[in-house]
Design brief:
Layout: H1 3-12, H2 17-30, E1 40-44, H3 50-59, E2 62-67, H4 70-79, E3 85-86, E4 99-105, H5 116-126, E5 127-138, H6 146-150, H7 159-168, E6 171-179, H8 184-197, H9 211-229, E7 239-246
Parallel strand pairs: 1-2, 1-4, 2-3, 4-5
Antiparallel strand pairs: 5-7, 6-7
Helix pairs in contact: 2-9
């Protein structure tokens, strides 16, 4: 991750439509595990720690947030996020089978293509048998944008490729869907037409827009969350969600 992006995220992640809407989608995705009772949960690539705090408050999980970049961790330290650890998720400083679940959101995209395998094997190592992996990654190379370049995103996934990677690490894939799907035509126009025609430079896309637009866009993601909660799936989208289990 570009260290400069953490400041933008810290300013926007509570209110910006994308963060707020994707939290609704994540909540709908986690609701597919109604009988799971997690006590110790690792967040692999926690950034500012905001999501770990949200997950702890929402579900009562004891979170263990880790991130490689101190630029992100420093914001969490200022906010008093507990148990934050500076660590490479490809070399976690934890004993085997010590977590009930691992959550990792939009982190594997910062590995070079194929490099995500090492991190996924580490997640498998630290999850107990029967524990869960809750994963989100950015989707589809055609959606690579100026923001992707700015954030130092190194790869994007298809549904098949992320499922194959998760299975190769030793997990059973329980469910998988694209998400952030209804705005896909807008994203395609913006990234493949508008940014090309205007020759825009790489820059952050993280900022809270005007309140009416922010509410409208968050509402669109809220509709997606409702559909996922009902058991629906999306055939394409800007993100991919995965639920997986460590069987042994």
């Amino acid at each position: 991750m570009n260290p400069a992006e953490f400041q933008n995220i810290a300013r926007a992640e509570e209110q910006m439509w994308w963060f707020a809407g994707m939290r609704k989608i994540l909540d709908a995705w986690i609701s597919k595990l109604p009988n799971d009772r997690f006590e110790r949960v690792l967040e692999g690539g926690c950034g500012t720690g905001f999501m770990s705090t949200w997950l702890a408050q929402r579900y009562g999980w004891r979170m263990f947030p880790v991130d490689l970049d101190f630029a992100g961790l420093s914001f969490g330290k200022q906010l008093g996020v507990p148990r934050m650890t500076q660590s490479d998720i490809a070399r976690l400083p934890f004993a085997k089978e010590c977590f009930d679940a691992v959550v990792s959101l939009d982190v594997l995209v910062h590995f070079p293509r194929g490099g995500e395998a090492v991190a996924l094997r580490e997640f498998h190592r630290v999850i107990r048998p029967g524990g869960r992996l809750i994963l989100r990654v950015s989707a589809l190379d055609i959606l690579r944008s100026r923001h992707s370049i700015f954030a130092h995103e190194r790869q994007r996934f298809t549904r098949k490729r992320i499922q194959d990677s998760v299975r190769e690490a030793g997990f059973r894939v329980d469910d998988c869907s694209y998400a952030n799907s209804l705005l896909l035509p807008v994203a395609l126009f913006k990234f493949r037409v508008w940014e090309e025609l205007t020759r825009q430079e790489a820059k952050s896309g993280v900022a809270v827009p005007a309140a009416p637009l922010n509410s409208l866009l968050q509402g669109v993601l809220g509709l997606e969350a409702a559909w996922l909660r009902l058991g629906g799936h999306f055939p394409l989208g800007q993100s991919i969600l995965v639920l997986a289990t460590k069987e042994s």
